[in-house]
Amino acid sequence: MLRRLPGSAWLPTFQVLAVIGAAFLAPAAAQNTPGADKRGWPGGLPNGWRMLGDDEGPAPPTDAPPPPFDFGRDGQFLPPRGQSANPLSKNGQNGAAKQAAPDDQAAKAARVKARADQLKKALAPKPEPAILRQQALDELFKHLSAASDPDEAKGYAEAIKHIWMQSQSDTARLIMQRATQAAAAKNYPLSLSLLDRLVALEPDWAEAWNQRAAVKFLMQDSDGAMADIDMVMKLEPRHFGALMGMGVILQRAGLDKRALQVFNKALEIYPAQPSLKDSVEKLSLDVNGRDI
């Protein structure tokens, strides 16, 4: 759009505004200020900028950074000098973002998979306590059979006994505690009475039957003790304590050959028992005789 100033030629609108603005701000100083351009802008335009549609002004300094954007004569967008007109060029920032995108996607996928694995693990059904107990016993018996040092083997044996003494029932644990305390105080009738209640309450608890067998043995009830040991063997065939008790009862009954078999079976489960080894060697001599 063109406008005519009084006494002047027709000028483009933006030039009219420039002249009016210059006259309003500094009508006299604009002509005398060093560095002012030919249109009278005080101090010139900012570094790297040029008038819209101005192709005649001085070029910006060569060491100046490229302007953030520019417009051509027809008003179209022009990129900064030295950069491609394509905003998605691989030399621009968007190109770098596109190159980094695969790595970002891979990291995101890895995080999603890790969260999914954690959720799956958290929601997975937990093993039953009986299964965990059996797994722990299996591992301990494996070490017990391989241990050659008596002290090391004793540690495994004590750990096994500790598991045998555990029950999921608070009531059963309390009865077991009172029964063992009574037996330690040699109050065998009270201990036996408590253990009778315990095997009725927890008939699948092998250690309850084993403790009652021990109390019956101390009360000179060998037949009752053997009957309880049979129950222990059905529930826990690897119970080396019950096997040794059975061997002692058989040996006292004069059944040395059967006692030797039971002792050897106990040694297979718990081999690092010096006292049992000595007993087996002596009993072997009695059963099999000395070599000539």
From TrEMBL:
Cited InterPro entries: TPR-like_helical_dom_sf, TPR_rpt, Ycf3
Superkingdom of the organism of origin: Bacteria
Secretion signal, residue range per the UniProt entry: 1-28
Keyword field: Repeat, Signal, TPR repeat
Compositional bias (Low complexity): 96-109
Region Disordered: start-end pairs: 31-113
Compositionally biased spans, kind Polar residues: 83-94
TPR repeat coordinates: 240-273
Pro residues bias locations: 58-69
The protein's name in its UniProt record: Tetratricopeptide repeat protein
